[in-house]
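Structure (tokenized):
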């Protein structure tokens, strides 16, 4: 019998960055939480000096200023190489990665790896995205779907939101809660494939809504998942 993803060891990943465009912004902090049922989680954190200015708006969200990054952060190339190595090791184990709004974080990381010529073997082909699953399985719930809101909906406490470590821990807890609630017992590869379809469907619906509400037929919402390969839309 296949073990459902919510009972497996899971790697949860979250980043905080210099901006909102995953193709051009840079990683400032990254957390990976190795969450194994019945054990204390193993936590890895990176504070990176991105080598570019951190806008005040971004600092206001995650709390890392230029001064902090320059004084305490590791050089971007070294930090990103370390992140890639952890992803490589996890890929070798063949286990899922949990990323809330994966199309942002994974597009960002792939862009950063390409920028610095870093090799990452992880194909991101076993990804669990609680945001995509929640939107699909509870379509008509009113309200926003930010991690803070979704975590509260599933009874999960999220303190210090918008720090990579807190968001990462909450993401894996939400993923397990969704899996249990909706009895998602298919093999992880099938769950991954379904999320590709879900994300595409959700993006088409959101694009239609924005085009109508803004009276602008040029709006494009990128529905690629778990990462974007084209830069059109958002």
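Design, position by position:
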């Amino acid at each position: 019998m296949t073990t459902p993803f919510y009972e497996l060891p899971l790697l949860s990943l979250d980043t905080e960055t210099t901006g909102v465009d995953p193709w051009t912004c840079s990683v400032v902090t990254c957390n990976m939480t190795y969450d194994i049922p019945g054990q204390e989680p193993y936590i890895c954190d990176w504070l990176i000096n991105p080598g570019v200015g951190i806008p005040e708006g971004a600092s206001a969200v995650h709390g890392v200023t230029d001064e902090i990054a320059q004084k305490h952060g590791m050089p971007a190339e070294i930090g990103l190489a370390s992140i890639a190595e952890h992803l490589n090791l996890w890929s070798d184990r063949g286990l899922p990665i949990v990323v809330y709004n994966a199309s942002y974080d994974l597009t960002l990381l792939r862009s950063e790896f390409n920028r610095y010529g870093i090799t990452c073997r992880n194909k991101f082909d076993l990804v669990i995205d609680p945001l995509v699953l929640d939107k699909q399985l509870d379509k008509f719930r009113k309200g926003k779907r930010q991690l803070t809101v979704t975590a509260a909906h599933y009874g999960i406490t999220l303190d210090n939101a918008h720090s990579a470590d807190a968001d990462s821990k909450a993401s894996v807890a939400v993923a397990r809660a969704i899996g249990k609630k909706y009895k998602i017992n298919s093999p992880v590869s099938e769950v991954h494939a379904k999320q590709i379809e879900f994300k595409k469907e959700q993006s088409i619906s959101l694009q239609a809504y924005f085009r109508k509400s803004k009276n602008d037929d040029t709006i494009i919402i990128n529905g690629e998942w778990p990462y974007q390969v084209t830069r059109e839309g958002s």
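Reviewer-requested clarification: The first helix runs from residue 56 to 62. The chain has a mean pLDDT of 96.
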